[in-house]
Amino acid sequence: MFKTSICDLFNIKYPIILGGMLWVGKADLVAGVSDAGGLGVLGAGGMTIEEIQSEFEIVKSKTDKPFGVNIPLVRPDSEDMINAAIKAGAKVIVTSSGSPKKFTKMIQEQNCRVMHVVANVKFAKKSEEAGVDAIAAEGYEAGGHNGKDEITTMALIPQIVEAVDIPVVAAGGIADGKGFAAALSLGAQGVQMGTRFVAAHESAAHDNFKEALLKIDDNGTCITGRTTIGPTRAIKNELTDMIVKAEGEGASSEELFEMIGEGRSIMACIEGDCVQGSMYCGQIGGKIKELKTSKQIIEDVISEAQIVIKQLSSLI
Ligand SMILES: Cc1cc2nc3c(=O)[nH]c(=O)nc-3n(C[C@H](O)[C@H](O)[C@H](O)COP(=O)(O)O)c2cc1C
Questions:
Q1: How many angstroms separate the CA atoms of 249 and 78, rounded?
Q2: What is the pLDDT of residue 304?
Q3: One domain, residues 220 and 71
Q4: Which of 16, 17, 18, 21 to mutate to test the pocket of ligand 1 (most atoms within 8 A of CB)?
Q5: Do residues 50 and 105 share a domain?
C-alpha cells in the first residue's frame, strides 16, 4: 500500500517521515514512527554526540526497523555528528541548513542514505548535483525555520518534482490522509510531517506545548524573523508579539538577539513556558485536535488516504 521509491530507498513500509525536531523528536518518537512503518528521524540539532549515541541505544532497544537523524549543517561539529550517528546505527542522514556537498559521498560510502531539506528549486537542483539520494521540499506553512522565498508546499512540490530526477518528499502542512494523498498527487514520493508528530504521545514536547497546539486554529501561528534572523513559524504568544513589534519598529538582528536571548525553544519544549518560550508549529496545527500515538497517526494517514483516493477515482 502506497509503496513508492522512497520506501525502497529507505527500506520502510510507508513513505511517511518524521521531520527532525529540535528538543521534540527524541528516542521514543523515533522508535514509535519507525516501528509503525515510517522513518523515525532524531532531532539532533541541540544534542551532543554522546546524547545522539544514547538516544539511538534506546531506539534500538525498542525497534529493529531503520531510523535516521537530522543534522543541521550549521553545527561546526556536523561531520563528527554524522559519523557518530552512522556508527550508532542511523541509516538515513537528513541534512538541513547548509550545503550537503561536503558530506554526501562520505555518508553514502558508509552504506547510508542522504536526504537534504530545501525550500526552493535552486537548492533542490544544487542538492541533486551534490549527489544526495532524495530531497525533502518544505513549504512555507511548515513549523520551525522556513525558506526566505515564502513558497508554499502546493506550489513548491510540482516545481521541484519537475526540476530534479531524484525522489522528492513533501513537507509543510501535511498532517492527515488528505494531505498525504495531495502530496502524492503533486508528484512527491512521500511526506515529512513535523507538527502532527509534536502532538504524539511519545513526543518529548512538554505537555503545555502539546495542549497549546491542540487549542490553536488556522490562524494560530505566525512568522517572526523575516527581516532579521530568517523566517521561523511558531504558535503566537507574548514572545512572538514582542518580536513582531520589534521587527515592525526596525530592530536589527543584534538588537533582536539581545532581546530574545538564548534558549527560548528549551523554555517551551522542555520547561513548558508557553508564554515566553518558542513553540515551533506549522499552519496545519489548527487541524490537530487530539493526541495520538505515532502508530495511530500513521495508520490514520494511510487509511484516510485510501478513502480519499477511492472517492476521487469515483469522480472519473
Ligand atoms: C517543533 C519543531 C521543531 C523543528 N525542528 C527542526 C530541526 O531541528 N531541523 C529541521 O531541519 N527541521 C525542523 N523542523 C521542521 C520539521 O522537520 C518538518 O520539516 C516540518 O515540521 C514539516 O512541516 P509541518 O510542521 O507542517 O508538518 C521543526 C518543526 C517543528 C514543528
A1: 36
A2: 98
A3: no
A4: 21
A5: yes
